[in-house]
Amino acid sequence: MAPGEPGGRANGCGGEALRVCIVGCGAVGSLFAAHLAQVDGVEVWAYDVVTEHVEAINSHGLRLVGEAHLTGQVRARTDAAQLPPCDFGIVATKSMYTRAAIEQAAHAFGAGAVASVQNGVGNEEVIAEHVQRVIRGTTFPAGRVLEPGLVQMDTRGDTWLGPFEPQPAALEEVRRLAEAITAGGMNTHALADARGAQWTKLIFNAATNPIGALTRLTHGRVCELPQTRELVSQLVAEGCAVADALGITLDSDPDELVDHAAQVAYEHRASMLQDVLSQRVTEVDALNGGIVRFGEQHGVPTPLNRAIAALIKGLEHSFEQPR
Amino acid sequence: MSVQPEVPVIERVCVIGAGAIGSLLAAHLSQVCEVWVLTRRPEHARRLREEGLRVSGKSNLQARVGATSEAAELPEFDLGIVAVKATELDQVGRRLAGLAGRATMMTIQNGLGAEQVISAHGSWPLISAVTFMSGNRHGDVHVEYELDTPTWLGPWAGTHTDYAVVERVAALINESGLRAEPLPDLVPAQWSKLIFNSAVNSVAALTGLPHVALFAAQDEPAALGHVVRALVDEGKAVAAASGIELYEDPWEMNLLAVARGETAASDYAHLPSMLEDVRARRPTEVDFIAGALTREATRLGVAAPVTAAAYQLIKGKEASWRQASPADAQTAAEVKR
Asked: Using the beta-carbon criterion (under 8 Å), do A289 and B222 form an inter-chain contact?
């Protein structure tokens, strides 16, 4: 089958191809797409709204540089109506575009399961409004789009997948997807309960990203300055209290992750800081906003996360102010 | 026979620091008494001497003032108005030490603690003041009078300032075309403004927003008004624990200021001084405002987590200007998508 040509119905069984569609093929989506495209028997599709990127992928393949050097054959589309029925979806948009993206792409997953590998919490809930079987996911690899069709992989790291409890995919399905991604070169774990991994990363991000965005300090400097480091710990404590109320056992202590990251990523600018410097809308609603919403549902007060979320929304408004 | 109480005489005023507030006071007061200005830069003093001081906006004046950058060159004066930023108080106190023996000194800084800093350098009777007027400096010799809201003043409890002097100073300011109100006890008013500044200036500094209508918005869960409200409520709890009854409710002050400052196009909204400092990458007055409230909260055992967070974040922002490779330097192109 030529790249770009829809094939027959795939079911992932026997000798037939496993068909996976990446929904939102930005930096993280591209990492998954290009790695999966390395695996025999996996057919990779991508849905993205950036025409130049989609055209470049269809013309020259999807190229990764940095921590990975490979090119994947990916069938990319800007029109979701052109997607064939798929076994799996992997949603990798920024969290504020989850709804718009899955609304368009949902028809391709009538019989398939859809995973989120996005930042924050609340994405799976939105996906579940449009798709029957959903997979909760968390991923650490990161990168950036250097030019259309070319993505730099900045960091490697593991991915955790598990059934989304209210509308779960079968654990067997989750394993199949995890094995395919691992076979492509990105280590992925299938778990019965993936909430611990997700909330560990959520709490880490919600406690560090907005501090970087509001102060413009790199991660290492946030940790060096006693005042900001203390605030990070207080935000972590609020997040942990909410996770506790949800009955979630964290994978590791987010406060220790913060100090570890200060060692290995001293000069790192949190993605939210990058968003703010480029005057883009941030993912704060899925991070601190998510902690606030889940806290409310379980009667856990989160005054600091609430304040931080409002300050970031205010900062976003400032982009529209005349100077 | 009744004895006529002696009316304190104020013939010569020295304004220390010619920022927006200092310039407005100097220019207006020069209409009713002799005014000197003590500047930091010699060039600033020279231009004030040679060109005078122009006011536009709510007033239209061309003022003549004496000016010097050498404290020792000042003639004796009756009233000193210390109008430098809170961060420069200690330095200015050192320059004034041993001078102006007959003067009453008035501090007019945002936040808490200005009087203590000045009183460490001399035994002048002190007047505390808080001001709600605002101006925009257009260079060294031109200031625009923006908000014509009043200045409140009262004797500072740490010294034995005669209330008659406070009343005379207020009258003088009113005669000069600005607005002032004397109060026997300034603490309630000072705390009202402290809490107002802790909320509004902190949020402006952190979001980059001037004081626009969003500061009062509480429609959505993440609306900015909720942070302003949380900061105000924490400040009020600290005041209550100190036994201070506020002169005005800071949340009402916020609503009023927003209603006044907001026009159809919000580009005329007032730029809080802390946001000006952030844009210019100058040290802010946060230690005297949210920082002072945080310290008071700790001392009194009152929970003020959002105030502490605002203080910590603004200290972080100040630290970012010392970053070897400022994050700002990264261009949008480098982080596209």
From this structure: yes
The helix (H) or strand (E) run that includes residue A295 is helix A288-297
- Residue A26 has its nearest CB partner, among B206, B214, B337, at B337
Which residues in chain B are contacts of A145 at CB distance < 8 A? 336-337
How far does Cα A202 stand from its chain's mean position?
11
- Taking contacts as CB-CB distances below 8 angstroms, the residues of chain B near A292 are 221-222
The answer to whether the CB of B192 falls within 8 A of the CB of B185 is no
Q: Which residues of A290-303 are buried (b: 16+ CB within 10 A; e: fewer)?
A: bbbbbbeeeebebb
Task: Give CA A93 to chain center in angstroms.
Answer: 7
Residues of B in CB contact (< 8 Å) with A are 203, 206-210, 212, 214, 221-224, 226-227, 230, 265-267, 305-306, 308-313, 315-317, 319-320, 323, 325-328, 330, 332, 335-337
Q: Is B128 helix (H, G, I), strand (E, B) or coil?
A: strand
pLDDT by residue, tens only, chain B of 337 residues: 455 557 788 999 999 999 999 999 999 999 999 999 999 999 999 999 999 999 999 999 999 999 999 999 999 999 999 999 999 999 999 999 999 999 999 999 999 999 999 999 999 999 999 998 989 999 999 999 998 989 999 999 877 899 999 999 999 999 999 999 999 999 999 999 999 999 999 999 999 999 999 999 999 888 999 999 999 999 999 999 999 999 999 999 999 888 876 543 455 677 888 999 999 999 999 999 999 999 999 999 999 999 999 999 999 999 999 876 544 444 333 333 3
Question: Which value does ipTM take for this structure?
Answer: 0.85
Helices (H), chain B: 20-29, 42-51, 89-96, 114-119, 163-175, 187-207, 224-241, 250-261, 273-279, 290-300, 305-320
Say how far apart CA A99 and CA B88 lie, in whole Å.
52
How far is the CA of A263 from the CAs of A219, A224, A260, in angstroms?
A: 10, 11, 5
Chain A neighbors of B320, CB-CB under 8 A: 215-217, 221
